[in-house]
Amino acid sequence: MTEPRTAIVTGAARGIGAAVAQRLASDGFQIAVVDLDESSCAATVDAITSAGGTALAVGADVSNEEQVKAAIERIAAELGAPTVLVNNAGILRDNLLFKMTVEDWDLVMGVHLRGSFLMTKYAQKHMTEAGYGRIVNLSSTSALGNRGQANYSAAKAGLQGFTKTLAIELGKFGITANAIAPGFIQTDMTAATAERMKVPFDDFIKFSADQIPVQRVGQPEDIAHTASFLVSEGAGFVSGQVIYVAGGPKD
Ligand code: NAP
């Protein structure tokens, strides 16, 4: 990179988003750490700045158009035009279909699909003007179907179609769009799933690792490593792809 680029990572207060934010900062990006509550971004911002990087905490609900608009304007003004966007913010509202409420369906669609749409819609202006951009969307192996996740799996499959369409529409502006589809990653999200299933998290991890070809569960850094590649300048001919980062093949 000739001069630092600005990268936005949503849901970056913890988990995968925090690891991606820190990894991209160490790659030389200035990071907008976006999460629901600005104060919750402090730990990620501190980790980046204490390692010598630049980061800005930005509170925004990615499913709220006004908040997204204001967040992107602030990021562009304070850090410079964002040309990298990682749509990572996510929630679970798992339940079997017959028990799933309309509210839980809408909430999950709102954060994953509407949130990624809004963030991309307002960030792409800066990328098309720069003639350069990198977009990474967080899908999931659940896109292939997962019991108790009708809402989440539909949203994560939807993100794959969204990603491919972005790649087609934005390619001529020097912008790539790709999706990462993680398998089991050890975060608060998978800890919450273990709790919902009434299984101790350690047992859940061990059971899951036994089913995974590489015999371990993933760590947020596994996803950060893949994101680092996808947002690099050298990855300019990789677009519209879904990369499963799951310790084994998925299709
Ligand atoms: P996590 O630990 O639950 O972190 C998600 C972050 O997103 C939280 O900081 C959360 O903020 C934030 N967030 C939620 N709703 C938001 C909104 N409307 N606007 C802005 N930020 C919001 O989850 P994770 O495990 O790191 O997962 C990150 C992404 O990877 C998600 O998209 C998830 O679906 C995907 N993924 C995870 C796994 C896995 O095994 N962990 C596997 C496949 C895919 P609050 O703390 O305030 O709620």
TrEMBL record:
Alphabetized Gene3D superfamilies for the sequence: NAD(P)-binding Rossmann-like Domain
InterPro entries according to UniProt: KR_dom, NAD(P)-bd_dom_sf, Sc_DH/Rdtase_CS, SDR, SDR_fam
Domain Ketoreductase: 5-183
Family of the protein in this entry: Belongs to the short-chain dehydrogenases/reductases (SDR) family.
This protein's UniProt keywords: Oxidoreductase
Protein's name in the database: 3-oxoacyl-ACP reductase FabG
Name of the gene this protein is made from: fabG
EC number, UniProt record: 1.1.1.100
Pfam family name, one: adh_short_C2
Gene Ontology molecular function, alphabetical: 3-oxoacyl-[acyl-carrier-protein] reductase (NADPH) activity
Enzyme class per UniProt: oxidoreductase
